[in-house]
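Supplementary Note 3. Input sequence used for the single-chain structure prediction.
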Amino acid sequence: MPLIPEEPQIHESAQGPRATPASGRTAPTPRPVPGPRPAAPPRPGRPGPLRPVPPVQRTPRDVAPAKPGPSGPAAPAVTPQIQLIPASAEGALDAAEESVDLLLESGRAPGDVLVITTGAQHPWAEHELSFGEASYWAQHDAGDDVFYTDAAIASRAASRPVVVVAVNGGPTSAAASALSLAHSRAAALLIVCGDPQQINAVLGAGV
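The predicted structure, written as discrete structure tokens, is reproduced below.
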């Protein structure tokens, strides 16, 4: 029985004969036809198609906290370091003087120090007040030297980095007033010279 020759199978990948142009050059292989192109993204600086944008609801985390201006709330007060130097009422002023000398020797500027007495005034304050309060407080406002005052008028004094209190007598109320005021005026260090029992009783009362 004669064999019937099988027909050659044509593969889908096989390409037919290339057409030869009239010039004799081989024509390039046909390229696949691309599908539909995606929309080109908008160029920088050129607006794309307008679309409705839903409103954005900002949460409290998105809102930056407002910075307090000059009239805003003041920063919390810094609690000064307290140093107690035991001394009698008679020796409290001398102890305060020694403390001032040590502060100046350690590099503190004279204008950084305020000294408050609870009993008799410091001799410097008594001398300067003899020329009048205007001249006395002008030296305080200059702020270039150690300033001495007493509990009765110390409320007018401004804050300084270091305040030294000499509990050199006077009523207990004067000591309490001086310590409370000194605690609010001392920005960094509060030195108290006097009877430790009396001082601790006043400090423990909430100064």
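Confidence is low (pLDDT under 50) at residues 10-17, 19-24, 32-76. The beta strands are 81-86, 113-117, 147-150, 160-166, 186-194.
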